[in-house]
Amino acid sequence: MSNDNYLLTYILDTDSTTSEIYKRTASDFTSFSGETEIAPSGISDASDKENVSLSEVVENGSNVIFLWFDYGDGTHYKNIYYSVSTDYGATWSAITKV
Fold first, then answer.
1. For 50-59, what is each residue's pLDDT tens digit?
2. How far apart are CA 31 and CA 43, in angstroms?
3. Running DSSP on this structure, what letter comes out for residue 43?
């Protein structure tokens, strides 16, 4: 991220069938902010975040693009989503299914 800020995203299993997407920010790699759940607009269906895997963050100028897979039944990747932030991860656009 710009201005020497870093965005760390990760997946945390909340139970045996559901995962949540979290972020932390830092101006260096030694002191990170508290854990915050990423909640892109439009994630109203819990299945959009079940069995989440392989998250990826890509920066393009001031835009941060966040990608993740949801493989639902656990057998194969079947849904790919992305959301965009224009304020370095503070807020997120509605999710888009690829």
1. 555 556 667 6
2. 29
3. -
Quick one: pLDDT at residue 9?
Answer: 67
| pTM for the full predicted model | 0.57
Q: How large is the C-alpha radius of gyration of the chain?
A: 13
- Tokens standing for residue 59: 């920066």
Coil, strand, or helix at residue 48? Answer: helix
Do 52 and 22 form a contact (C-beta atoms < 8 A)? no
Closest among 19, 26, 18 to 8, alpha carbons compared? 26
For the chain, domain boundaries: 6-97
Q: How far is CA 15 from CA 12, 51, 63, in A?
A: 9, 10, 32
Q: What pLDDT, in 10s, does the model give residues 26-78?
A: 777 677 777 777 666 545 444 555 555 556 667 666 677 767 666 555 556 56
The C-alpha atoms of residue 86 and residue 19 are separated, in whole angstroms, by 25
- Rounded to whole angstroms, the Cα distance separating 88 from 98 reads 22
Question: What phi-psi label fits residue 81: left (phi over 0), alpha (psi between -120 and 50 degrees) or beta?
Answer: beta
